[in-house]
From TrEMBL:
GO MF term (any one): DNA binding
Name of the protein in question: Plasmid recombination protein
Highest taxon listed in the record's lineage: Bacteria
Keyword tags: Coiled coil
InterPro entries, per database record: Mob_Pre
One Pfam family per UniProt: Mob_Pre
UniProt record, GO biological process: DNA recombination
TM region positions: none
Species: Vibrio qingdaonensis
Chain coiled-coil ranges: 239-318
Amino acid sequence: MSGYQFIHLETYSNHTSKSGKASMHSIVNEAMRVDDCCPHVFQPQTPEILFGLDPRKLPDIALARSLKARDKQGRRIRNDAPLLLAGVISIPAESDLDFKKFLSLSLAFLKRTYSKNLASAVLHLDEEHPHLHFYAVPSLKDGGFSMAEIHPGIRARNECQGKGYSKKANAYKQAMRGYQDSFYAQVGSEIGMTRLGPKVQRLTRKQWKAQQAQAKAFSAKHSELTRKQRIISKAQKFIDTTKKEIQQREIELTQIEKAVFFQNKEKKKNAYLRKRLSAAEKELAHLAEHAEGLELKNSNFLQELKKLRRNNKSYQQKFDAMAYKLSLKDEYILQLKQKLRDNNYEKANSTYASNSYSY
């Protein structure tokens, strides 16, 4: 069972009204399960704050803003003026809907709808139907403080140009229907809930069951379309990124092609290299036909090369030995020449000495 959507808004002032409507202090204490403030709950449980502040802090914030505010005539806000907006979003206890998705979509709806004015969201699981309480406080804007800022019905009623209670009341109702439609578009339809209940539509049980099944099927189809849309969006992003890269490369290539150096030098070089490449490819094709013979010749060549290297090494050793011997011979010859010069010198001296003596 999926059930139908339920979202409701109320406004609260700083004091209990003459008709007995609770003050904003009472309503936040009830939400936080303060002792003696929730007699309708059999076994109160501590609620979970899903967003924002502890609701018990909000009355002081709202009151402080209202005390600073003034109307167009410079007057203070009335004592019975609404200061705090409170709402409830509920899901049937017997529903088989995705509860986590319900909470996620509901919080997203509240954040989009109230933006910075959304002050708190609290989850209750200790009553018959699980539900979410949310609270919003008007801003202190340009010295003004008005519930019309965050309540669609009050805003439409204040902006209604027609005179008379009926026209303003109709404007209020139309705005609240629009609010419900917005919630259905963003939350109810996403999880398979119907916009209205069977009593409001005056449906039989069979018709109600059929409408629920249709809503659930619509939700499943919507989820599938959303999933496919995400895939398409992801693919589109990839395509866009690739297009940008290609465009960037085209720009770079265009800039290169426009360069004078590339046009005059690189094109000629490219043509030359292409000719060389073509010739090399032809030569490679020719060599491929004789691959086996070339492999054999290559093997013989390697063996011959090894042999030549061995012989070269042997010849080098012999050459080194001969060079060493020649160096020894050259050294010996130099020694002999030096000895011969020394002997001739001694003979010359002895001859000179004997001739001198004879005189």
